[in-house]
Design goal:
This protein is mainly alpha-helical. Helices cover 50% and strands 9% of the residues. It has a three-stranded antiparallel sheet, sandwiched between helices. A hairpin with a 5-residue loop joins strand 1 and strand 2.
C-alpha cells in the first residue's frame, strides 16, 4: 500500500504528539517527595512590622540588617550547600557538624549567622524590656543574683565583646542560667548550650540609630525591646528551629 507525503507527515506528527502526551501524563502523576529536593533556606519575615520598634530601632536599620545583611547570609548558605552532603541537612545539623572545622568555616559562618539573626528577631518585641516574670524571673534570681545583677552583667558582656559578636542568656547542660558572649558567628548551639535571649552587637545592628554608642543600644534593648515571653518559652523547653 502506498502512502502520500501528506499522509506520512500527518501520521508522524500525530505519533510525536501521542508520545509527548503520554510522557507528560506519566511525569504529571509521578510524585515528587520532599527528600528528593535539596534544602533551600529562605529569609524569614520579621515577626513585627519593620517600623514597629521605632524610635528604638528604625525601619531603615531593618532594611539593611534584615533585608541585606541577613539575606546575604541566606543566599551564600544556599550556594555553599548546593551539591554537598549538607544539601538536605537541617540548619542545626549544618551548624553542629561544621563547628570547629576550619575547612568548613565559610559554611559554618553563614549557617550560624542565619540561625543567630532568625533567633535575634524573635528576641525583639514592641513594648518589651523591663523585668521578666514567673519561672524565668525566679531562675534569674537563683542563678544570676537577681535582675539588676543580670542586667549589669549582660550589658558588661555585650560591651566587652571586642569587635563583632553576640551577648547571650543561656541555659547550660544542667539547666543553670549563664551569661555568655561569642565572637562573630559563634553561638551557644555549637557549645551544647540552649539560647534563651540574645542581643546582636555587630555594628550593622545599631550603627544607623546609635552610631558608636553600643552601650545605649544594649541598654535600650534591656529596657524597651527584650522579648521575655520568648525567653521564658525557651527556658520551658521550646525548641527553636529554623524552617527552610
Amino acid at each position: 500500500m502506498s502512502i502520500s507525503r501528506r499522509d506520512f507527515l500527518t501520521l508522524a506528527l500525530g505519533g510525536v504528539a501521542f508520545v509527548s502526551m503520554r510522557a507528560f501524563a506519566s511525569s504529571a502523576h509521578t510524585p515528587i517527595t520532599m527528600n528528593e529536593a535539596p534544602m533551600t533556606f529562605t529569609l524569614p519575615p520579621l515577626p513585627f512590622a519593620k517600623d514597629a520598634l521605632a524610635p528604638h530601632i528604625s525601619a531603615q536599620t531593618f532594611d539593611f540588617h534584615h533585608g541585606k545583611h541577613h539575606n546575604a547570609y541566606v543566599v551564600k548558605l544556599n550556594e555553599l550547600i548546593a551539591g554537598t552532603e549538607f544539601e538536605k541537612a537541617s540548619l542545626e545539623d549544618i551548624i553542629t557538624k561544621t563547628a570547629g572545622d576550619a575547612s568548613k568555616a565559610a559554611l559554618f559562618n553563614n549557617a550560624a549567622q542565619h540561625w543567630n539573626h532568625s533567633f535575634f528577631w524573635e528576641c525583639l518585641t514592641p513594648n518589651g524590656g523591663g523585668k521578666p516574670t514567673g519561672e524565668l524571673a525566679a531562675k534569674i534570681d537563683s542563678d544570676l543574683g537577681g535582675y539588676d545583677k543580670f542586667a549589669a552583667d549582660f550589658k558588661a558582656a555585650a560591651l566587652a565583646q571586642f569587635g563583632s559578636g553576640w551577648a547571650w542568656l543561656v541555659a547550660d547542660a544542667s539547666g543553670k542560667l549563664k551569661i555568655t558572649k561569642t565572637p562573630n558567628a559563634d553561638l551557644p548551639l555549637a557549645h551544647g548550650e540552649r539560647a534563651l535571649l540574645t542581643v546582636d552587637v555587630w555594628e550593622h545592628a545599631y550603627y544607623l540609630d546609635y552610631q558608636n554608642r553600643r552601650v545605649d543600644f544594649v541598654q535600650t534593648f534591656l529596657d524597651k525591646l527584650a522579648n521575655w515571653e520568648f525567653a521564658a518559652a525557651n527556658l520551658a523547653g521550646k525548641t527553636f528551629k529554623i524552617a527552610a
